[in-house]
Amino acid sequence: MGLVQRKVGIIGGTGRMGSWFADLLERSGETVYRIGRSTELTPSEAAKNCDVVVISVPIAETVNIIREIGPLVPKHALLMDLTSIKKEPVKAMLEHSDSQVVGLHPLFGPDNLITKGRKAVVCHGRGKQGIDWLTHTLEQFGIELIYMDPLSHDRLMGIIQGVNHLSTLALGLSLSRSEFLCNEIVRSSTQTFAQRIDRIRAVLEQPPELFESILMDNSEAEEFIGTYKDAVRELSEITTNRDREKFRDIFKSLKAFCASKQEKR
């Protein structure tokens, strides 16, 4: 697989993220086939005949699709996925295919084709030409690439996605159970808090399956969600007991953490 035009089949290419990736590859000059539930081209046919096979389906379906089409992907071809969980998909691709393997997680939504300044995580599974093609393609659009192993990715996403979305939904749930209507809260909000409500609304505009998978299908998220729950309990006890000294100690330790830049050894 050199850096010449190739055939790319995107399973889930009619969905939002699959469509974004298809558009990007077409701008790069590749021949792209978008495979969906109602398209004439099937996942199996794409797996057999394409130089690059991309899995862009809901997280809960990803491993089953890989098991189904992985054995059909030629050894010279690249099999890759676009999901936000990497450990199980990369493992499945390596186990069920002899092809080159890469896991990719764009750290942004498929809202538009503007890519400059955006980031994506790359998890290398197997082969060199495939990853060289992928990184060359993404870098020419100004996407910053972060390389890590699948387990490290999933642990980080347990915090960045799991704890983040859980806390966003928990805030929304607590607001909904207050005595106030949402527009009453917004009317009296600071700009910062209004932005948090906007974030809740943005989450709720997405399919619930997306967030349930992020919270339930990443096995590495459970540990950090537990840590988050412990932190809420600790702060609740401190404020209930009006323990100002402990509160200031925590505030000081958090300030030091946020100011730290040295990487862990």
Can you give a write-up of this model?
The radius of gyration is 21 Å and the shape is elongated. The mean pLDDT is 93. It has two domains: 7-148, Rossmann fold; 152-259. The two termini are 37 Å apart. The protein contains eleven helices and seven strands. Helix 3 packs parallel to helix 4, helix 6 (150-176) crosses helix 8 (191-204) and helix 6 packs across helix 10 (221-240). With 265 residues, the chain is α/β, with parallel strands linked by helices. A seven-stranded mixed sheet has the order 2-1-3-4-5-6-7, sandwiched between helices. The protein has helices at residues 16-27, 43-49, 59-69, 87-96, 129-139, 150-176, 182-187, 191-204, 208-216, 221-240, 244-259, and strands at 7-11, 31-35, 52-55, 78-81, 100-106, 119-126, 144-147. 54% of the residues lie in helices and 14% in strands. The longest helix has 27 residues, at 150-176.
Report the major sheet: 7 strands, mixed
Q: Helix proportion of residues, in percent? A: 40-55%
Q: Would you tell me the overall average pLDDT?
A: 93
Strand order of the largest sheet: 2-1-3-4-5-6-7
Give the CA-based shape.
elongated
Work out the number of β strands: 7
* Number of helices, where a helix is a run of at least 4 consecutive DSSP H or I residues: 11
Beta-strand percentage range? 5-15%
User: So, CATH architecture of the largest domain?
Assistant: 3-Layer(aba) Sandwich
- Look at the structure and name the CATH superfamily of the largest domain: NAD(P)-binding Rossmann-like Domain
CATH topology name of the largest domain: Rossmann fold
Poorly predicted residue ranges: none
